[in-house]
Structure formats: C-alpha cells, structure tokens
C-alpha cells in the first residue's frame, strides 16, 4: 500500500513523502495515528498543491531576506561602550546591544541570534559583523564602536 506521510516517521520518511508499506502497518499504525493517509488521486493532488504553496512561501521568505540584507549592508550602527585607558572596554559589545542600536538608529527589527560574532568586540573601532538572515543569505553589518 502506498501512503503519504503527514508527519516525519523514524526509519520511514519525512512529511510529504510517498512511501510503500505493508497493508497491516498502514491500517494498524500509520492511518489510525494520523501519521499518514492513503495515496489516492485526490490526496496526491492535495499534496501537490501543498508543496507548491510551501515553495511559494519559501521563495517569499528568501526575497524578504535579500531585501533586508540590502538594507543592512547600507547601514552603519553606532554603539557606545564604557572604556578605560587605552580604549580598552569594560566588558564587550553583545549581539543584544547591536540589535538594540540597529532598532533605534535604523528602525530595523532583527533577532539577536542571527548576528554571528566570531570574537567579542572589546575595543573601539569599526567592525564587520556577519548576519545570517536565511540559509542562502548572509550579509555583513558595519558596527562602529565608540569609547565613552
């Protein structure tokens, strides 16, 4: 019997896959637990429509990430930190501070988890910080750190 999986099933397949299983496994396990539905013409057509809608949604998310990436590359964020002698900071600039400054200065909402700091920023200066907006879209944000 062919079954369309409605959820990921360990050792069988992922959601949306069409798999061939024994009749008993389908009738006694997959169908009653709503883990899959029988692969009829109507269900296959419904699956096709769902996949097309998901592809369109993923494409829209990708386009939005590219637009946001263009905005971020054009912006320079100013962050002020307390510093002692020689410009050495007390502590470091965190992603949370960068996101707050970005919101305040450029009115761009961003999740702090998307900003990737390789090394902590502890000195005044200009830094390029990687921002991963989408698996296919990564940009560099310019952060200017000023000692106070």
TrEMBL record:
Function: Binds to the 23S rRNA.
Highest taxon listed in the record's lineage: Bacteria
Record domain Ribosomal protein L9: where: 13-40
Residues forming coiled coils: 37-71
Classification via Pfam families: Ribosomal_L9_C, Ribosomal_L9_N
Entry keywords, A to Z: Coiled coil, Ribonucleoprotein, Ribosomal protein, RNA-binding, rRNA-binding
PANTHER family in the cross-refs: 50S RIBOSOMAL PROTEIN L9
One of the record's GO cellular component terms: ribonucleoprotein complex
Keyword rRNA-binding: yes
GO biological process per UniProt: translation
Alphabetized InterPro entries for the sequence: Ribosomal_bL9, Ribosomal_bL9/RNase_H1_N, Ribosomal_bL9_bac/chp, Ribosomal_bL9_C, Ribosomal_bL9_C_sf, Ribosomal_bL9_N, Ribosomal_bL9_N_sf
GO molecular function, one term: rRNA binding
Protein name: Large ribosomal subunit protein bL9
UniProt similarity note: Belongs to the bacterial ribosomal protein bL9 family.
